Structures are given as C-alpha cells and as structure tokens.
Amino acid sequence: MTKIPAGIANGGGNLVGSCGATEFVDCCEYTHTDNLPELDVPKSDQLGSVLSMAVTVRIPTTLRPLSGGDKQVEVQAGVLSDVIAALEGTHPGFADRLLDEDGNLRKFVNIFVDDDDVRYLDGLLTDVADGVTVSIIPAVAGG
User: Fold this and answer.
1) Rg (Cα) of the chain, in Å, rounded?
2) Total number of domains in the chain
3) How many CB atoms sit inside 10 A of residue 55's CB?
4) Domain assignment of residue 107, given as a range
5) Which residues contact 41 (CB under 8 A, 6 or more apart)?
6) For position 2, what pLDDT does the model report?
7) Whole-model pTM above 0.70?
8) DSSP state of 85
9) 19 and 84 share a domain?
10) For residue 15, which of 30, 31, 46, 119 is within the disulfide window of CB 3.0 to 4.6 Å?
C-alpha cells in the first residue's frame, strides 16, 4: 500500500477548502495544503484486484428462466469458455444449453463479443476483456 494524504491529490499536494473542509463541499474555494492525515490506498499494480470489472452477459428471453429472469448477468472476464464456466457456476444449466457433448459451441446458438460473432474470432478462446458485453443469440429457423 502507498500512503497519500487524505483529500484530493493535485500536483504532489492536496486541496482543502478555505473553510477547513477536507471533502468536496459547495461552501468555499480550494487551496493547496500538505498537512492532511494519510490514507492507505493500493498501488496501481494492485488495483486490478481491488477495482475488478466484470463482463456483462445479455441473456435471451428463452434462457432467462436459467438466470432467474435476469436480462443481464455479470461475470468475471477471461476467454469465452471462462465466461461460460462462470455463468454456469452462478446459474447452472447454461453450459448444457450453449455447449455440445464435446464442449464446442452449439450450432443453433450464436454468441457475440462486442457485436462480433465469436465464430469469426477465436471461438471459445475469444478474449473477453473487462467491461465488454457478451450477447447470446439463439438461432431462428422456420419457414
């Protein structure tokens, strides 16, 4: 952990209200000071574990009973197979509906990572970064 003074860091020092306030308030102008108490904050290389973002998975209507009716579910980032495993871990039944007996993506299910069909990317090895949206789209057939 790195120690930094409480307040708002600005050019090596901190800002504090001219009225003595150390937080954002609408009562005064801010001036520079260095004599505020210190807080423990993670170093930038530790922020990933502290500020972990998630992947949003959009659930189609036909699969919503598996997600408890949720239209969207958040899981940890990784490759697409990790995302499906995380989805299966929190909402059992998704893996059976998305993957065949050999662990491959079913032919009647389309999965998009940020609007790109994974069949034209790296399939189940497609990287799914933090903040990305994964959309599950069942194939439509008929006459």
Assistant:
1) 23
2) 2
3) 23
4) 55-138
5) 1, 2, 3, 4
6) 39
7) no
8) H
9) no
10) 30
If one counts every other C-beta atom within 10 angstroms of the C-beta of residue 75, the result is: 21
Location of structure tokens 């799914």: 128
The tokens of 123 are what? Answer: 């399939």
- What is the C-alpha to C-alpha distance for residues 114 and 105, in angstroms, rounded to an integer? 18
Q: Is 118 helix (H, G, I), strand (E, B) or coil?
A: helix
The identity of residue 22, as a single letter, is T
pLDDT per residue, tens digit, the chain (143 aa), is 433 344 444 444 444 444 554 444 444 444 444 555 555 555 545 544 445 569 999 999 999 999 999 999 999 999 999 999 999 999 999 999 999 999 999 999 999 999 999 999 999 999 999 999 999 998 887 66
The answer to whether residues 107 and 98 touch, using CB atoms and an 8 Å cutoff, is: no
Q: Is there a domain that residue 143 lies in?
A: no
CB atoms within 10 A of CB 111: 24
- Amino acid, single-letter form, for residue 142: G
Q: How many residues does the chain have?
A: 143
What is the rounded CA–CA span in Å between residue 137 and residue 116?
A: 12
17 shares its domain with 43: yes
Do 64 and 28 fall within a single domain? Answer: no
